[in-house]
Amino acid sequence: MKALRLALRTLAREWRSGELGVLLLALTVAVAALTGVGFLVSRISAAVALQASAVLAADIRLGSPQPLPETYFTEAARRGLRSARSTNLLSVVFNGEASQLTNVAAVSAGYPLRGRVLVAGEPFARGSPAAGIPAPGEAWPGSKLLAAVGGHVGSQLSIGAASLRVTRVLIARPDQGGTFAELAPNLIMNAADLPATRLIQPGSRVSYAALFAGERTRIDAFKAWLIAHKGPGERLRDITEASPQIRNAVERAGRFLSLASLVSVLLCAIAVAMTARRYVHRHLDAVALLKTLGATRAFTLAMSVLQLLALALLAAVAGAALGFLAQEWLLRTIRGLLAVTDLPAASLSPLAIGFVTAIALLAGFALPPLLQLARVPALRVLRRDVGPPPPLVLLAFGPAIAVVLLLIYWVVPETKLFLYFTAALAAFVLVLTLAGVLLVYLAGRLRGRVGVAWRFGVANLSRRRAESVVQLVAFGTGIMVLLLLGILRDDLNGDWQRTLPPNLPNYFFINIPPAVRGDFVRFLQAQGARTTRVLPMIRGRLTGINGHAIESLRSAGTGEDSFATREQNLTWASELGADNRLIAGRWWTAADFGKPLVSLATEFQESLGVQVGDHLSFDIAGDALEVTVASIRKVKWDTFQPNFFIVFPPGVLEGAAGTYMTSAYFTPGSARSLAQLARRFPSVSIFDIDELLAQVRAVLDKAALAVQSVFAFTLFAGLTVLLAAVQSSRDERRYESAMLRTLGASRGTVVQGVLAEFATLGSLSGLLAAAGASIGAYFLTTQWLDLRYAFEFLPWVEGVFGGALLVAAGGWLATRSVVNQPPLTTLRA
Amino acid sequence: MNTNPKPSAQAPTIRNRVLRAESLCKQVSSPEGSLTIVDEVSLDILAGESVAVTGPSGAGKSTLLALLAGLDVPTRGRVLLEGQDLTQLDEDGRARLRAQRVGFVFQSFHLIPALTALENVMLPLELAGRGDARRAAGETLRRVGLSERTGHYPRQLSGGEQQRVALARAFVTQPAVLFADEPTGNLDTVTGARVGELLFELNANAHTTLVLVTHDRELAARCARMVKMDAGRVL
Prior knowledge:
The structure holds two protein chains of two kinds. By secondary structure, chain A is an alpha+beta fold. Chain A is 55% helix and 17% strand. Chain A is built from 23 helices and 24 strands. Chain A has a six-stranded mixed β-barrel with strand order 2-3-10-6-8-7. In chain A, strands 15-17-22-19-21-20 form a six-stranded mixed beta barrel. A three-stranded antiparallel beta sheet of chain A has the order 5-4-9, with no helix packed on it. In chain A, helix 13 (465-499) packs across helix 22 (794-820). The longest helix of chain A has 49 residues, at 244-292. Chain B is an alpha/beta fold. Chain B contains seven helices and ten strands. Chain B has helices spanning 61-68, 91-101, 117-127, 133-143, 159-171, 189-206, 217-221; strands at residues 17-30, 33-46, 50-54, 76-81, 84-85, 102-105, 177-181, 209-213, 225-230, 233-234. In chain B, strands 6-7-8-3-9-10 form a six-stranded mixed beta sheet. The radius of gyration of chain B is 17 Å and the shape is globular. The A-B interface holds A 2, 5-6, 9-10, 13-14, 16-17, 19, 285-286, 289-299, 377-379, 381-383 and B 62, 65-66, 69, 71-72, 91-92, 94-100, 102, 104, 106, 110, 112-116, 119, 123-124, 126-129, 153, 169, 181.
């Protein structure tokens, strides 16, 4: 209690005397950077999730072949959630004599709960958002349907026993799916007209969907309730099961943002360690005096810890407030760029996380020096050269290492990545330390060969051996993360540019009969469309794994039923596509053609839990096929090229009856071409993914934006580390500068010396940082972000010159007042 | 101002002997090997006595002072402060004893820059758990003539004023023994003389035992006893 009282009182007084300003600033900036990133990441992630949930038209979608009980809807309403219904069935739609098998969706008011329905006045035109749903008696048929039956706005379509008037053409709806689940042309109508169609009869194939949306925590709670109460045949989907394309982009963005926040956290750690060192250095005399006056070691330790805790609390509140304001300002400035106009409110969790992290950083990086401070002997009051005894290595570095490891694991809770990142970090710090020792050695050797100013500056590095090494590690790490972030940002942006060019395929064509395959491709090319590869497509069902029937595996609880029971699209190919990467096994050669082999996409392989060498049994149109898993592929779905989970070598499936599929890019305004295509190849299903692409682009835009913002935060945190580092040697420098000037050195000479020292330190840190960043970027891009790595020379130039310039400028700014101070003032003090 | 009253000489007894050094030795290791700084020093100091430790630079005066005050531990020998063997106490034990029984004045004042004059004087009282710290500190500052400067920070005070604050801080706990290490060493002659006078006046009023390390012959001459040292030994 006595310690607390004295700690708070001296804290307030020390603050008034200006001593704690730098420490508080460093902590505040650290927390601001951390929470700012946290708030930003949480809000943008939420916006991305919101965007992604558009593909379900809801946050949660419950599907069933049976009508869904009313209790779900009343429970959702009770929990303050919005809901809507969508009843889907296949039916033949007539326009006079012309008919077309159509996927009819009868929706209730409120649909869609997420995303938007796009409609137009004519088929294949650019759509605009619809207000509400078709009124009773109206229908919105899709372009393909209307083109196929030769209708237009105003036509009367017969659906079952009902006749509905076309008032709009459906261009896109959010839940039309990205997995070719619904291949038939679309039509949406009002659920109120459904009884009049008399389409729902005993035995008719109808799927019922309940859509729910609302605030995240309520949705999560409701999801848990639904899982506990839903019937066996009811399938629940949420954003985690959204289409592979969106999920891919969200995962990639999330991974990058968490990496960026980790970078900020580590910079915070460096800043805290440096400011704590300075704090300890400045308090050696005071603690020795307190001990002389009768304070015990525990008392002095308690006092320091309490002071830092109070400071941490202050910094956490101020920093979090600053962080919040910064991200709020940032988001307001960039709001116009976001597809979602109303960003979700910031969650408060970054506040708690920021505070806990601040405390953890203090415990890991400030406590060990504080423990050292408490060990300073009282004798120091008589002999200034007496400091605390050297620390135990374990005590000095143990807590810091433990905290860093915990933080890394917290951000990347995947063992492999954790080990990669940790090993890379440890190697980097080790290399920097060794390089630091080398620099100190070289400085000692070179100082005789340079002018007086440089000798003074470089000799400083050599003389403050331990400090120089610490600063080298800190600057090196700081510059490295900045460079690494820069390289990764360029890689990500570049990769997105490469994989999402503006003329990405925007139409998929399914069910192309083998007989018209050539004609079809020629037709596409004649229409000016940019075509892609054409792949065969055969329907088949997985029946067994390693000789065990799939049903028995399901009942034994192994394997994922949704993949196992679903009818699969199979294909064969001789070449591995550029958007496929082999991660296990080997791709077949011509010698393997005709052999019973199969290659699986990671999604399929992981869900079934099978490995290379396992045997899979398929039922293809009644014929049994036994194959061995030859390879596992990682597929980049966001290339929008035709891709399959299951690929066979040529010569295995050719006998089965199948069709072909392809994708192509049509320029906007190709409505006429597509309408012609629909009429000429009536059996071909046209799948418009323009809206889906727009969604993916919006997600990636947000991610890129977040990356830029996080980069700004990290840069700021890096500069704080620089300030903290320079500050830590300020007192010594003040004295040295005064001595040099007293001995006749001009101000210019002293400034040159300071610049020489920091420029040397900065350029070497930059050189090492560039090397570390390049190696780190290679591993991160190829192993984690799943991108191609391209060596860049620019980071090396930026590292060496930028490092020298940044550290020299920062060093000069921070020591300017020291150099400018009249020598007498310093020597008298 | 009063002159320093010299206590009557009498044989040291356990009852009135406040400080005793028995065969004190302090050795430190140096690149040239082991270095003896204090060599077989034995000393008895009586309650209320004032002792000046003098000698050339490097004679071991300040190290002897540190050993007597329990700021450092001897390589051999022992120190008894009011009968309590300091060498048997750990660092915290010695700190507690200092809080109760010992005061200090240093050459470089050693005021805490973040604290005002009043707060610096309150500090030892607060550490000793005294409830009337503010009143007692104010009163002591008044006695050293600084009642107008209680709210000033050390950097706002002259050297002489800073040392007066240090004197107030040393006497405010009414210690049994006051150790002073070159208390006038950082002051000009006139200010040094004034501070010296104040030191002896306070010492006389408080009946404190004074152990003074100094180069200042005049200041040393005001002590009842002079202990001369050279090369770590008492001459």
